[in-house]
Write a structure and sequence with these properties.
By secondary structure, the protein is an alpha/beta fold. It is built from twelve helices and nine strands. Strands 4-5-3-6-1-7-8-2-9 form a nine-stranded mixed sheet, with helices on both faces. It starts with a strand and ends in a 19-residue tail after the last helix. The structure holds zinc ion. Zinc ion binds next to loops.
Length: 274
């Protein structure tokens, strides 16, 4: 199994990522990573897409149709597959991830920090305030990855989403939040690559100028996908959109784990492999 870090920048639009994630764009220019444009699934809401990104299933299949549906998934996800195949899973993430993959509803004293207490995230540090600093999320995730030698580590930041809801996507606040996340990524990726990890950076959905997402236009649903992996051909492959349903089987393939039977066939993934 190949270790993997999955960075989920909540609500990071494709266009804003392209404008502001200078380090990642540099790595594409330098031929050291791959970039794709993802056409997000619908509804372009957080909890449904947290489920879609990890399970590879559309909302109508996994059943998380809006943010208000609070339940723990019973279908396979990257977490459950990694765990079942002998891997260690970790997440520094918003508490909805704990609800989807460990236990629901979230109870702060019980679920804020979890280690091997059941569920598919073995080691978790979960936050519940949307303004929890991205710097802390990345540090929480790195702590878990290193301390527990995690095979699959999810790092899920919320500042971009928070600023988008407060000020809309055309605001300096939203753009700065994306830029700041890019700086944080640049501080961690070299170490992850040195440790032999795949690195995947993407988002659950975008944001519009009214501070809304959930709908169908490109700014609400298109997200970036940056990949560092020796299995993927490096370069900018953004001339066509790939479906968000491909993200989970792609990660399974990069990790060298068996995908779930319900995922799209990893042999058909429309990505240039080495
Ligand atoms: Zn979100």
């Amino acid at each position: 199994m190949k270790k993997t870090v999955f960075v989920l920048l909540d609500a990071c639009q494709y266009e804003s990522a392209t404008r502001n994630l200078g380090y990642l764009e540099h790595m594409i220019d330098a031929g050291s990573a791959a970039k794709y444009k993802v056409k997000g699934e619908l509804p372009s809401l957080s909890r449904p897409m947290y489920a879609t990104l990890m399970t590879g299933l559309p909302a109508s299949s996994h059943g998380i149709l809006c943010n208000e549906i609070v339940k723990t998934l019973t279908c396979d996800s990257l977490f459950s597959l990694c765990q079942a195949q002998g891997g260690v899973t970790a997440a520094a993430a918003y508490h909805w991830m704990s609800e989807l993959y460990n236990v629901s509803p979230f109870a702060v004293p019980r679920d804020r920090i979890r280690h091997g207490q059941g569920g598919h995230i073995d080691h978790g540090i979960f936050y519940w305030e949307d303004m929890y600093p991205d710097s802390h999320v990345f540090s929480d995730g790195e702590y878990l990855r290193k301390t527990y030698d995690a095979d699959f580590t999810l790092i899920h930041s919320m500042s971009i989403d928070y600023m988008g809801h407060q000020h809309g996507c055309d605001s300096s606040e939203y753009e700065l939040a994306v830029s700041n996340a890019g700086c944080l990524i640049s501080r961690f990726v070299p170490g992850w690559l040195e440790d032999g990890c795949n690195v995947v950076v993407t988002a659950d959905h975008g944001m519009n100028r009214f501070g809304i997402h959930g709908g169908t236009d490109a700014i609400q649903r298109n997200t970036p996908l940056y990949i560092f992996s020796d299995k993927v051909k490096n370069g900018r492959f953004t001339d066509r959109e790939i479906s968000q349903l491909w993200v989970a089987p792609l990660v399974a393939r990069l990790m060298e784990i068996e995908p779930s039977k319900a995922m799209l066939d990893p042999k058909q993934i429309p990505i240039a492999f080495v």
